[in-house]
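protien #1 (seq + structre)
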Amino acid sequence: MSAISTVAPAAAGAARAAGPAERAACAVGAALVTSGLFHLGVFFVDGGPWDGPVSWRKPFTFGVSFGLTLIAVAWVTSYVRIPARTRAVLLALFTADCVLEVAGITVQAWRGVPSHFNMETPANTAVAMSLAAGGALLVAVLGTFAVAAFRAEPAGPAGMPLALRAGFALLIVGLLSGAAMIARGVADTRTGHQQAAYHSTGMLKPLHGVTLHAVLVLPALAWAVSRTGWPAARQRQAVLIGVWLYAAAAAGALGWGALTA
């Protein structure tokens, strides 16, 4: 939660100076986080398993995760050198996609059925395929932002260019691991091994979860060290250490997933 408290002042300031797409993204992101926290409360009241394809954990974690990522992307892309209209369109697509993903998972949780790899009825198939299509759109939108961040050096404090580029690189790793899980799960489901789909994708879940939030944590670190008054070289060194530590955490998550799958 320290990254959230660190980035909050910067995000709030950016939102006040932002256009409609940025303000909408922050508002929707806050609503998604609220939805996630609400479902954590539902879990404590209703009980049930925490793990597994059907649990209140999914609307909780997905709501909070997508909400924080949406707010983070709305903030950090203000440093990316990309045309304002293009950024507004991409943010609008990303905002709509985040709502689609969280809504699909939440609806299925209330129905008491799995959200992913569930092809048992036409309705369940429609939700599962919409989540997969939404994942493809996430890769396309965030990949575009990542390319822009590497094509031209981002603006911002001394450590921000490194933080943004590393954050987006790790985020793409997270998205690709998610795409790999979807591809493997869909393949298992189509061959009649739906239960196997939930187990075969487990190895990548820790890596997926850790890398998705690098685009929040690393720019938050860069912003925080910029407030210290340190020389630019020291700020960049601090961010570089943070990048290596985050990369080590991602590698550890992959190892943990391999051991526990």
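ok now protien #2
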Amino acid sequence: MAQTRSLPVRILRSVAILIVAWLALSWLVVLILRFVPPWTSAVMMERRLSALVHGQPGFEIHQRWVPWERVSPYVPLAMVAGEDQKFPFHHGFDVDAIQDAIDAADDGKRLRGASTISQQTAKNLFLWNGRSFVRKGLEAYFTVLIELTWPKQRILEVYMNIAELGDGIYGVGAASDAYFGTPPARLGPAQAARLAAVLPNPRRFRVDNPSAYVQRRANWIQQQMGQLGGPGYLQRQR
């Protein structure tokens, strides 16, 4: 009887040990990546696998890490202006945007995203594309870890280096080479706004051949950059 009772206890104990070990390992990885540039991301690995599965053997990923100080200050400002203007102030989640998305869905409108830059960084770096509850739960978990472990500047630095900005083009370094033939440090506000304008659908929208919609959005982002107060807006990061 004692052995029968001890089996479920041993199983629960093993499961608990595995969970604690996974939590510790995931936090350790996040801590290391605060200081070490990630050599790839989950989304890039998923894209490589998709290319192999769909018979695209010549497909290549273009990405190179560019540190914060070698990127024009207009680039992170444009991404914040276009996607997450409350980024310097929230703790990873924009509660108002989430509530607005829920209210819109309740009214029968198309479900729209409310992801912050912190959430997108967590998803791009560690997870896969999709809308399952499991992925969203893991995204929330990694978002909390990132916000607790990284300063805001580091979140933006990683995001602008791994965000997809074209088919197979990831990060501001590869994008500035491919689209403008200039170092990221020399990108102007209009070029930065055009990069941000294709997010979050860079395979449909083009930086190098912008549609009327992309150009209108780029103009709007550039206007928002000015209204936010220019690059100084990001000095309010915690």
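Residues 2-33 form the longest helix (32 residues).
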